[in-house]
Every structure is written in structure tokens, then in C-alpha cells.
């Protein structure tokens, strides 16, 4: 999609204006989201031209939105502007036998994490208890419940909007007997009701993963278990090995040791920035 889309941008807008917009766009359900690299360069007419390029090449797209801000913490919401098509931000995104109802104006969702959701599901063993500390609309939790055979997935999020959509998604995907949606802060929730319960803990929110690593350890069973830790790395100043060492040092302060740790890059998120994941098997020292 990227090369053809960029070629069409250059043909219709010229190179200078084509360089003002990302050479790819996300399709979430039937909504396309374009990302502007140089604000103020493109006119309304230019955006209509971009919309027509997308509509012509992707008939399933019904709405086109423009991302006007980075994804912002703590709820990871981005500011969006309507460009063309049906004026809405609510859609249903489908991937790997799962359906996710998403309101892009209220919650975070990335189709670029679809492989990662499936990868985690493939690691889960039958009968596991899982705690997802930052669940959003439930994508990781539901993918695991649909594609693996966990005993239970405790799915926590602090956003009421995300929680409401998560509950709907649990019902839509017929996993209400496996995924337990919980509205609240992950730290408070784990310390009050989910200590020593998990075989596996997921920390899919890079902005808080490091600060909440101690409470992820509290959720694990006393004999230990898996933590999937997501973070952002600046490739010119950090490395995957450095990130693994940083995490090992932190868990060591709490009396735990990583018996296995493997890191991989998940996706690019901006110039010189990537999202990474570290899969750790930890136990008490």
C-alpha cells in the first residue's frame, strides 16, 4: 500500500506536498487515518484529493480522518479531524477471527499490533491465568481468549470509555466466560485483588510499563511466570540489549531474576523511534 499510495500522492499533489503526509495510512475497520508530517502545507482541497485517492484504492473505507496530534498519555488518545466520507469515529475492526468495536475519538487502537496480538496468543498454554494491566478495548485479552485456551484473563483499564467498549467486545467475541473486564488503575487493582494469581502478565502500555513493573511482579504466582513488557526505544541512543539490562536491574531490586529474556522490535512509531517488546520469564531469587 505504501509505495502505490505515495506514487499517487506525488502524481496528484507534487513531491513537495506529498512529503507533507505519511506515505502510509492506517485502516481501522472502515475508517482510514492519515498522518500529517508537516502541518500547514496542505489545503482543504489537497485533503479532498488525498481522500479520493484512498476511496478509489480502498473501496471498504467509508470515512477518512486526519491525525492532528501524537498519541497522548495517559489514555493514549489522539486528536482527529474529519476529512471525508461518513462523519463518525466508531467502527468495528476485524482481524484473526476477532472483532473489535472502537471509537477512535475516545480510545487507542493500532492495527499495526495485530501480529503481536496473535504472537502472544500463540505463547499461552492451556489453563493459564493472565493479567492484562492496560487493556484498552480488550484487543490482547480477547485475541488470547479466542486463539488460545487460558483459564481466565483479567483485563484492566483505567478509561471508562475503553472499559465500556471492552465489555461490548467481550460479548461480541463470545469470551465472557474467560475475559473479566475490570475498570480501575492497574496498581490498585492488582494490589487489592489480583496478587499472586497470574502465570502471565501483559504490560502493553509503553508509557507506564517501567513504572508499573513492580506491580506486574506482584501479580505473578509465587513460583514466577511470564511478563511481556512493551516500551519505546530511540534507536540512536538505546538498544534492545540495553533495554533488557535495564529491566533485569529493576526486577532485581524487588528480589526477582529473569531466567529468560528476549527482545524484539514490534514496529516503527516515528523517526528513530520503535516500539519493542521484551518477553521475560522471572522467578524469585
What does this protein structure show overall?
The protein is of the alpha/beta class. It folds into two domains: 87 residues, GMP Synthetase, Chain A, domain 3 (2-Layer Sandwich), CATH 3.30.300; 177 residues, Vaccinia Virus protein VP39 (Rossmann fold, 3-Layer(aba) Sandwich). Helix content is 33%, strand content 31%. It contains ten helices and 13 strands. It has a seven-stranded mixed beta sheet, with helices on both faces. It has a four-stranded mixed beta sheet with strand order 1-2-3-4, covered by helices on one side. The chain has a two-stranded antiparallel ribbon with strand order 5-6. The longest helix has 14 residues. It is globular and about 60 Å long.
How many domains, in number, for the residues?
2
Number of strands: 13
User: Which structural class fits the helix and strand makeup?
Assistant: alpha/beta
Question: Which CATH architecture of the largest domain?
Answer: 3-Layer(aba) Sandwich
CATH topology of the largest domain: Rossmann fold
Overall, the morphology is: globular
What integer is the average pLDDT?
93
Strand content: 25-35%
Helix proportion = 25-40%
Low-confidence stretches: none
- The strands making up the biggest β-sheet line up spatially as 9-8-7-10-11-13-12
Sheet having the most strands: 7 strands, mixed
CATH-defined superfamily of the largest domain: Vaccinia Virus protein VP39
CATH hierarchy class name of the largest domain: Alpha Beta
Alpha plus pi helix count: 10
Query: Termini, distance in Å?
Result: 49 Å
Taking Cα atoms only, what radius of gyration do you get, to the nearest Å? Answer: 20 Å
Which sequence of SSEs, written as H and E, runs from N to C?
A: HHEEHEEEEHEHEHEHEHHEHEE
Amino acid at each position: 500500500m505504501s509505495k502505490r499510495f505515495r506514487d499517487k500522492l506525488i502524481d496528484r499533489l507534487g513531491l513537495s506536498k506529498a512529503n507533507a503526509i505519511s506515505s502510509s495510512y492506517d485502516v481501522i475497520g472502515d475508517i482510514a487515518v492519515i498522518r500529517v508530517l508537516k502541518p500547514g502545507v496542505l489545503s482543504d482541497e489537497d485533503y479532498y484529493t488525498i481522500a479520493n485517492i484512498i476511496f478509489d484504492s480502498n473501496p471498504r473505507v467509508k470515512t477518512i480522518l486526519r491525525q492532528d496530534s501524537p498519541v497522548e498519555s495517559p489514555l493514549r488518545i489522539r486528536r482527529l479531524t474529519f476529512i471525508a466520507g461518513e462523519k463518525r469515529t466508531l467502527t468495528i475492526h476485524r482481524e484473526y477471527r476477532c472483532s473489535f468495536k472502537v471509537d477512535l475519538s475516545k480510545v487507542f487502537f493500532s492495527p499495526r499490533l495485530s501480529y503481536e496480538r496473535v504472537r502472544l496468543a500463540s505463547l499461552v498454554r492451556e489453563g493459564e491465568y493472565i493479567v492484562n494491566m492496560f487493556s484498552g478495548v480488550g484487543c490482547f485479552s480477547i485475541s488470547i481468549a479466542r486463539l488460545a485456551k487460558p483459564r481466565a484473563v483479567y483485563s484492566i483499564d483505567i478509561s471508562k470509555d475503553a472499559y465500556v467498549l471492552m465489555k461490548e467486545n467481550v460479548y461480541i467475541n463470545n469470551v465472557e466466560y474467560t475475559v473479566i473486564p475490570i475498570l480501575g488503575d492497574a496498581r490498585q487493582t492488582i494490589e487489592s485483588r489480583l496478587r499472586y494469581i497470574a502465570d502471565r502478565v501483559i504490560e502493553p502500555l509503553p508509557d507506564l510499563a517501567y513504572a508499573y513493573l513492580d506491580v506486574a511482579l506482584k501479580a505473578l504466582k509465587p513460583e514466577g511466570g511470564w511478563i511481556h513488557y512493551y516500551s519505546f526505544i530511540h534507536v540512536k541512543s538505546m538498544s534492545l540489549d540495553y533495554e533488557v539490562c535495564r529491566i533485569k536491574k529493576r526486577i532485581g531490586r524487588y528480589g526477582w531474576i529473569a531466567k529468560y529474556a528476549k527482545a524484539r522490535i514490534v514496529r516503527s512509531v516515528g523517526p528513530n523511534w520503535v516500539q519493542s517488546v521484551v518477553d521475560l520469564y522471572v522467578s524469585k531469587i
